[in-house]
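Before going further, learn to read the protein records used in this course. The integers have meaning only within a learned vocabulary of local backbone shapes. To see the layout at work, look at the sequence and tokens printed below.
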Amino acid sequence: MPRNHVFRSIDSFFGPQPSPTMRTIMQTLDRIALSDLGVLVVGEEGTGKKWLAKMIHQVSGRARSPFLWVDCKTLNRETLEKEIFGSEELTFSGIEITRGAVERAYGGTIFFENVEELPALLQMKIARVLEHQHFRRVGGFEEIGVNVRIITTSRTKPAVLEDDGIDKTEIYHRMCPVILNLPPLRERREDILFLIEKFIMETTTDRANRPKGITGSALRTCLEYHWPGNARELKVAIKHAARICSDQFIRKNHLPVYLQDYNKRVNGVTVEETEQF
């Protein structure tokens, strides 16, 4: 994939005029897109970490290969190792082989969400497998080759943490030398209009009934709100507004009631919706 094609692909995900922080992330992705470097995406809930992980995969040379999602927070800790590396178990009918994520994602990407939930010893095993490029299934003896890229996410930045006597910070850097800090939406309000337009486009395939945009006062309401749920909360709000909107533009009264009430509490007055974008 030519470099200029990669950059155009990245640009299409962030919009024509992203915030300075997102522009920095774009530039980093442009440099590492075609590499196999592991990436750690750090950010609050709802900031779009999974979305960014998928986008990294889509602009990489592995785009046509599997993208496997492993949520470390919901997996059973007793079976985590088997889920990741697979297993070989002796049964009455012979050896039963179960292929794990590392094997099933051959040539592609494994996305470990909430990687901080993984036990340190298992994180260390993943780091060593990536370093040596081979592994064994749990209970198996055969050495199996590895060809995957690792993308992980965490709600907090790596810190000096001890778990089972192991420095987890060092493991993070071995698995994912590239760290991307995805800021909360309240710190990159310049991206809100682009995200609103994106979410409107995703709401329905019926273009005739789809709103064309958002009015000025509705946009101001969105810009003034602090969005504790980040981009995920914005997406839910805009999709709700787009579905009940019968006009060409989303107006403030189409937004969820809690947003309208927040706007009134902040401003103390109701602004007439006369501007349209």
User: Anything to note?
Assistant: The domain at 3-183 is CATH 3.40.50.300 (Rossmann fold). The chain has two domains: 3-183, 186-267. The longest strand covers residues 149-154. Residues 17 and 148 are 33 Å apart (CA to CA).
